[in-house]
Design goal:
14 helices, 2 domains, six-stranded mixed β-sheet, alpha/beta, 16 strands, Rossmann fold, about 475 residues
Length: about 475
């Protein structure tokens, strides 16, 4: 198979780099995996469980192409925003194709299961559950079922991403802990143990939503931001001041990792793909189709709150110089050792400038990345084949980042919840670090900041009686 930087699957790269597989063999390994998402009766009435199942379907369909099915006793109305006239099953078909509701045949007898709501336990797999702002996943051998009281729909996005993460990391031998014990995370208090009832914050329903957002970068992370944002219960999404900024076009390599990316959109700008998705859900975004640089400056009627998801080469050192009131930046790892890691950094902070956090001309970091890419290129058959065929380009391919969509889903839930907590006068954080393969052990690294309540435009949520 001929590969280039625009067509190289970022998920397949994990197995190329770790196991020295060919790209074709890596793809086959992913395509042979079978997963059934089993939806119990509670999903019909729970916005959070619907967000969880839809997120899991979207993420899994990219990780395991053609290998995802849904077990659903009956169709029912959606309790989350979607395109007009859709039902829950129609939304699943929109995400994973018309065969998503058919798991018959020998190939599916040994499929893994993720259960949402009540389900028979004579399957292999995981139970996904939530309570308030907390999400948790557990193996059927040690099942945990939280009370599942509604408070923050972003917990659904979190548990959908976390469930696929546990399944992926455990089944492919990336983490010996994944899928073998209950794990979870609270979006209200990510520094607390997830099973602490205080962390669920069920008495703090999502009553205020950001009235302005600037989504900076619309690749892996930026599309996950838009996906998570679409589930927020806005009464009037047309009133949200929303700007989408990116300069890039969709290429083959983006299909695995971008939650809004579809093959028929190849060649289109990422801003317009995201705009179509959000407009179908009632938003009216404005587009900025140029790079973020020293000339980027919000105008008086532009959003002053930013969710930033630039790639590793993005000019993060400028983030606190553009004139925004607040920036939540998210960065993720890109190697076998850290592709499942993420760091959220809130700006401005009195502790450090953006330039001190991300030095713009870090020669040592550039040299380190170059050495790593060359070592990888010289030790893996896929890159050596490229060097033999083309005499160049193999080091560039080796230096590309590994990326998986469940990392983006979890990072998006954390990023948006940071804004929502601050709007509600809840706890605030300047830096959150987590690695999904050992999510429990990284929670203690969160740094709490005593920030004032976020002052920005907001929209009050009006819930149906």
């Amino acid at each position: 198979m001929t590969i280039g930087s625009d067509s190289y699957s970022r998920i397949a790269k994990l197995f190329v780099d770790r196991d020295d597989l060919s790209v074709d063999d890596a793809r086959r390994q992913l395509e042979q995996f079978r997963l059934v998402l089993r939806c119990g009766p509670e999903v019909a009435s729970s916005p959070t469980l619907q967000a969880a199942a839809l997120t899991a379907a979207n993420v899994a369909n990219r990780c395991f192409p053609g290998g995802v099915r849904v077990d659903l006793a009956r169709d029912f109305p959606l309790r989350v925003p979607w395109t007009p006239g859709s039902t829950f099953l129609k939304a699943l078909v929109d995400i994973a194709g018309p065969r998503v509701h058919n798991s018959s045949g020998a190939d599916w007898e040994k499929a893994q299961t993720i259960a949402f709501g009540s389900m028979a336990r004579d399957f292999r797999g995981l139970q996904a559950t939530f309570d308030g702002w907390t999400a948790a996943v557990s193996p059927f051998t040690e099942i945990v079922r939280l009370p599942e009281r509604e408070a923050c729909v972003l917990a659904g996005v979190l548990v959908g991403g976390l469930a696929i993460s546990e399944l992926f990391l455990g089944n492919f031998g990336i983490s010996i802990e994944a899928g073998s014990q209950p794990v979870g995370l609270s979006l209200w208090r990510p520094d607390m143990a997830w099973d602490d009832e205080t962390a669920a914050a069920v008495d703090m329903p999502l009553n205020f939503l950001p009235g302005e957002l600037w989504l900076l970068g619309l690749g892996h992370l930026g599309q996950a931001f838009a996906w998570a944002c679409s589930f927020l219960p806005y009464s009037n999404p047309t009133d949200v001041r929303l700007v989408l900024q990116d300069f890039d076009r969709l290429v083959e390599a983006n299909l695995d990792t971008g939650l809004l990316s579809r093959r028929h959109d190849l060649g289109r700008t990422k801003t317009r793909i995201a705009a179509d998705f959000l407009e179908n859900r009632g938003f009216q975004p404005r587009l900025v189709e140029r790079r973020f640089d020293e000339n980027t400056c919000p105008q008086r009627d532009d959003p002053a709150i930013v969710l930033s998801g630039m790639d590793s080469a993005g000019p993060r050192h400028l983030l606190d110089q553009a004139g925004f009131d607040m920036v939540v930046d998210c960065g993720v790892g890109g190697t076998v050792a850290n592709f499942d890691s993420m760091t959220l950094q809130v700006l401005p902070t009195p502790h450090a400038s953006a330039e001190s956090i991300w030095p713009p001309r870090d020669a040592e970091d550039v040299a380190r990345r170059e050495r790593f890419a060359r070592k990888l290129a010289n030790s893996r058959g896929t890159y050596q084949d490229v060097a033999t065929q083309h005499r160049c380009g193999h080091v560039e391919l080796a230096g590309r980042s590994i990326a998986v969509p469940f990392v983006g889903a979890v990072a998006a839930a954390l990023s948006l919840s940071e804004l929502c907590r601050r709007l509600m006068g809840g706890p605030s954080y300047v830096r959150i670090q987590s690695q999904l393969g050992s999510i429990q052990s990284t929670a203690a690294k969160i740094n709490i900041a005593n920030e004032p309540r976020l002052r920005t435009t907001f929209q009050a949520v009006v819930y149906d009686e």
